[in-house]
Amino acid sequence: MQIPEAWEEQARKIIAKPGVVLVIGKVNAGKSTLTRYLLQAAADRGLKAAVVDTDLGQASFGPPTCMSLTPWPASPTSFRFVGATSPAGHLLQVTVGARLLVERARDQGAGVVLVDTSGMVHGPQGTLLKQFKIELIRPHYLLVLQKGGELEGLLERIPHPSGMELCRLPVSPEARPRSAAERTLYRRGRFAAYFQEAQLRWIHLRRPRRILSGLPPWTGRVVGLFHLSGETLGLGLVRRHDSDKVELLTPVAKSGAIRFLQVSAVRLGEDWQEVHS
Predict the structure, then answer these.
(1) Looking at residue 123, which CATH number applies to its domain?
(2) CB of 237 within 8 A of CB of 198?
(3) pLDDT higher than threshold 60 for residue 12
């Protein structure tokens, strides 16, 4: 892969002065590619690095519908379930969840924490999303991937707190647009990969009717699985349910730890294709 010289220079800055790095850019700007490059560059220099993936629809490190924390180069270790494939309408869950995952990464000793974001950068919600993330996360570096100053309007409307270095970077020359169909197919693959090692489990709940209400049909619905503490344990897929229990396909091994379910707006068919109902 061809790495722009500006990316290499930015990697040297972050290695010399590690911290929290927030990466923003439009759809198909190469945010995940840049994130992986910087993570590997930090790891190659012996720095402990982690990534917080907040792209709900095109997640690169965890499954769709939730955010994840991944200690590089391992698998995701922590999740924050949102239940949607877009941050629109879910700004509170996304921004607060991102803050908590960044704090966890820092508590675990990560010197470099990369925060990968969605491509929602325009309109009132796009502006608020980036504004709130900056205010809550307080990044040391804000990396802006853009072509020809396309995000300068956004940069005029978001905060620039003291101690944050704003860095404008070019889009990778290898970045290419992905159609809506390609993005849907990618999401389908991410779901399939997540549930690859899943097993069927019956989960007994105190008030499943209340939890499952409001989004029929429930079969095939993606749900978030929570510990009594509120910690997201992972995802499940509803296969069937009755008055006091739900059968789920899930990779979460400790079914006894599951105390709550949160239903998402996403339903999946047998081939992991999203079903609109």
Answers:
(1) 3.40.50.300
(2) yes
(3) yes
Torsion angle of the four alpha carbons 155, 159, 162, 166, in this order, in degrees rounded to the nearest 10: -20
Q: Is residue 177 assigned to a domain?
A: no
pLDDT of residue 71: 97
Residue 144, amino acid = V
- Token match 């990560």: residue? 110
pLDDT category at 206 given cuts 50, 70, 90 is low
9 and 122 share one domain: yes
Distance CA(12)–CA(3), nearest Å, equals 13
Where is average pLDDT lowest: 42-51, 85-94, 187-196, 242-251? 242-251
Asked whether residue 152 carries a pLDDT value surpassing 90, the answer given is yes
What is d(CA 149, CA 144) in angstroms, rounded to the nearest whole number? 10
Q: What is the distance between the alpha carbons of residues 30 and 146, in angstroms, rounded to a whole number?
A: 10
Q: What is the pLDDT of residues 231-266, one digit of tens each?
A: 999 999 999 887 778 899 999 987 678 888 888 989
Is the peptide bond prior to 87 cis by the omega test (within 30 degrees of 0)? no
| Whether residue 115 is found in the same domain as residue 22 | yes
Q: Which residues contact 232 (CB under 8 A, 6 or more apart)?
A: 66, 78, 79, 80, 81, 224, 225, 226
Q: Write out the two tokens for 120.
A: 């929602």
> Hey, what are 158's tokens?
């978001």
